[in-house]
Structures are given as C-alpha cells and as structure tokens.
Amino acid sequence: QVQLMESGGGLVQAGGSLRPSCTASRKIFSFDAMGWYRQAPGKQRELVAVMTSGGNTNYAEPVKGRFTISRDNAKNTVLLQMNSLKPEDTAVYYCNCNGNLGALRYDYWGQGTQVTVSS
After folding, report:
1. Could you tell me if 22 and 38 are in contact, meaning their C-beta atoms sit under 8 angstroms apart?
2. pLDDT > 90 fraction of the chain, expressed in percent and rounded
3. C-alpha torsion angle, residues 97, 46, 52, 109 (rounded to 10)
4. Exposure b/e, 73-101, CB count within 10 A at least 16 = b
5. Which of 90, 107, 91 is nearest to 13 (CA)?
6. Per-residue pLDDT tens for 15-42?
C-alpha cells in the first residue's frame, strides 16, 4: 500500500504560479512512473505530466512550456511547477504512481489538491 499526499494548491490570478507537491509513503525511485492528473468540473480526469523512473517526462499539450514536473528522491516528493497559469487550468490536481511489481500491477492516487485560477 502507498499513500500519496498532495499539498500546495490554492487560488492564484491568471499569469501567476503555483507549485503543488506530492509526498509518497515509500521511496519514489521504486515506482515505474509518477505523475499529475487533473479533473475540472464536468470533465474527465486527464493527464497533466508524468515522469518515469528513468527520468523521462511527458506533458499534456495544453501545459507544455508552462508546467515542469520534477522529483526529489531524498524527500520522496514529486513537484509540479506551474507557471503562466490560465483560468482553464482550474481543476483538482491528483498525484498518481503506477507500475508493475512482478506480475502485480499497482496504481495509487492521492486525495487531490484544488487549483483555482481567476481571470
């Protein structure tokens, strides 16, 4: 079992920045992938950014060039630096870790942190 705890969401004006963080209850280098997803009201949850254990990253098209995912293995933390925020970035942001441990598939979610961008 893995617990993921997000923090660092909040209310910001358009053009501003936030840096939510996700702290895991286990060593994050052991996860195949960690990432951030978001869900806006009335919409499906969507990928924002993901980082593999090898350090490869992938970003959703709407956030490319504005968001950066990074990790601090010593603190078991994954960060999402969000710059040039837009009202359409408003959503609940969820941390996720997933992968395979032998034949066992794991997929864990945090409780989410609200990000609200005002125009």
Report:
1. no
2. 87
3. -10
4. eeebbbbbebeebeeebbbbbbbbbbbee
5. 90
6. 999 999 999 998 877 789 999 999 999 9
